[in-house]
Amino acid sequence: MRSRTANWFECKIRYEKTMDDGLQKKVTESYVVDALSFSEAEERIIEEMSAYISGDFTVQDIKKAAYGEIFFSDDASADRWYKAKLQFITIDEKTEKEKRSSVNYLFQAGSMNGAMKNIEEGMGGTMIDYSVTSVQETQLMDVFEYKKPEKNDKPEFEQ
């Protein structure tokens, strides 16, 4: 399992999808992309989805995602995304009172039990005490990480 911290944006795409029965249906699907700004997020989701969707599609919505980190599974059956809200428990040294701070994470898994297992695995090296306050399956279809553009072997202008 690997994790990635970045600026994440949730993007909603609307297009006509061919269903299992062969009929065309307008659907809206959600994806997450790694980007620095809203305009870059729009550019990235259009670029990523152009490879998968034949025909027209529109970007319906883009919003900043509130994920502290996203955990990717190596398991081939991990085809769903789960949002987990964790509370980190610290002790205030001055008042000696317990302080809780909440953080949302996104975990890739094949089932709710798999998500819980991945949370334990992903947070296993954490020295701070935490509790899992909620885990819910999302409607996200996929997460697209930033990929460095490949360098061209040829120079742009040959002399």
Query: What's the count of strands?
Result: 9
* Tally of alpha and pi helices: 2
Described by the principal axes of the CA atoms, the overall outline is: elongated
User: Which class of secondary structure composition applies to the elements?
Assistant: alpha+beta
Give the helix level as a range of percent: 10-25%
The chain-level mean pLDDT equals 88
Q: Termini separation (Å)?
A: 47 Å
Helix and strand pattern: EEEHEEEEHEE
Calculate Rg over CA atoms. Answer: 20 Å
Q: Which ranges are low-confidence, i.e. pLDDT below 50, for 5 or more consecutive residues? A: none
Provide an overview of this structure:
The protein has helices at about 40-50, 110-120; strands spanning about 1-5, 10-20, 25-35, 55-65, 70, 80-90, 100-110, 130-135, 140-145. By secondary structure, it is an alpha+beta fold. A 5-stranded mixed β-sheet has the order 1-5-7-6-8.
List the helices and strands and how they pair.
Blueprint: E1 2-4, E2 8-18, E3 24-34, H1 38-50, E4 57-64, E5 69-72, E6 80-91, E7 98-109, H2 112-122, E8 129-137, E9 140-144
Parallel strand pairs: 3-9, 5-7
Antiparallel strand pairs: 1-5, 2-3, 2-4, 6-7, 6-8
In short:
The chain contains two helices and nine strands; from the N terminus they run E-E-E-H-E-E-E-E-H-E-E.
Keywords:
159 residues, alpha+beta, 5-stranded mixed β-sheet, 2 helices, 9 strands
